[in-house]
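Researcher: For the annotation table, I need structure tokens for EamA family transporter. Please keep the output clean. Sequence:
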Amino acid sequence: MTAFALDDPYDRRSGLPRPGSLLRSAAGSVPPSGLVLLGIFSVQLGAGFAKELFAALPPSAVVFLRIMAGALIMGVVARPKLRGMSWRAWAVGLGFGVTLGVMNLTFYEALSRLPMGIAVAIEFLGPLGVAVAASRRRLDLLWVGLAGLGVALLAPWGQSQSVSWVGIGFALVAGACWAAYILLSAAAGKHFPGTTGLSFAMIVSAVLVAPVGVATGGAELLQPELVLIGLGVGLLSSVIPYSLELNALRRMPKHVFGILMSLEPAVAAMVGLVVLGEVLHLQQWAAIASIVAASLGATRSR
């Protein structure tokens, strides 16, 4: 009888479909590649809305709203069990959370100084570095060269460039944190069941970012409309894309997933153009294309 109740997609009292079954059915009807693309658009749309908030709040305060919203939601959905955790699990979880917090802080600082497509393209060097480091093929030197060309094209060598060196520095730090995030995420999967590792990391990250976010945001953080937008940014940037990607990974090979994720800098540039009106020069589009091609090549060659 219990098994029947769990498998039954309808509520036995009301006769209506269960919300969970509706969500699973909706996700199941979308091809996995479509779920990945929806997740990418969700992340970048969240970043676009976050950048809009910079007019009212500093980047660190926006990061606080985003991570706090994500931590509250993930804490309810996948509450981590602290009792009985080994010291290795604590070390991995704390490192995971600190990395997540620093990654978001530095990326949003870069986002406040750079066009969105450029910030994401530079940050994407982190996962590209992880992919290349895991391989010993000579062909990978080509992808490293392409990525280096992309960075060189983005650097403000000429007077006509409007790209900030400080912004590039923040984006590079965010990329390094993204690389560490990938490695720590794999380690967390060995010490935490299900998605509780990410939930624990988001809670640690929220605690880490809270003093900076509250200090810089001040009383503005109490405005209901800003809190609601921050909640929306948290949903778009963390909860929704993670759920879509998790569902897609169950139904597609990981290398195909990596190839699709390589499109993220290009999607970021398009969202920046449409949502924020950020028009890039031809040289900057060429730089983003070089980094996307490097990521696609490194993922496909593996």
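Researcher: And a one-line annotation?
Model: Residues 91 and 188 are 10 Å apart (CA to CA).
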